[in-house]
Amino acid sequence: MKTTDKALIEQLDLMDAYEASGRIRELKNENAKLKKQLKKMRVDDKTLQICLNIAYGCHNYQGGHHDERDNEIYHHGIQTVINCLERLVKDKDLSDTQLNIVHSIGARS
């Protein structure tokens, strides 16, 4: 079970300073391990370009929406996808916090 930031802060508030500093140290170590794992998650350039081309195609195809409002909402969503993929192409890993969050949400779906 994952702990939310709010629950973690509540837990730390209930601890004495010694316990809280130990827990913070544990969290920093866990964070460092996760960052190392993320740096290892690399995708080859060809696969990234295929994903980016699909996103551009969806953007240009307009998803079949003919209503102006629906079309604007659709484009905004697809632009988010394009921004994420462009960041992934640039960084070659998931070390960017926002990109990592989007990836985590998608992995849980």
Cα Rg: 19 Å
Q: Briefly note the structural class of the backbone.
A: mainly alpha
Segments where pLDDT lies below 50 for 5+ residues? Answer: none
Task: Sketch the major β-sheet.
Answer: none
Total helical segments: 5
Helix content: over 70%
Shape: elongated
Mean pLDDT: 76
The tally of strands reads 0
- As a percent range, the share of strand residues is under 5%
User: What sequence of helices (H) and strands (E) makes up the elements?
Assistant: HHHHH
- Span of the ends, CA to CA: 16 Å
Structure report:
The mean pLDDT is 76. The protein is built from 5 helices and no strands. The chain is an all-alpha fold and 109 residues long. The chain starts with a helix and ends with a helix.
How would you concisely characterize the structure shown here?
The chain is built from 5 helices and no strands.
Features:
mainly alpha, about 110 residues
SSE inventory with pairings:
Layout: H1 5-14, H2 17-40, H3 45-61, H4 68-91, H5 97-108
Helix pairs in contact: 3-4
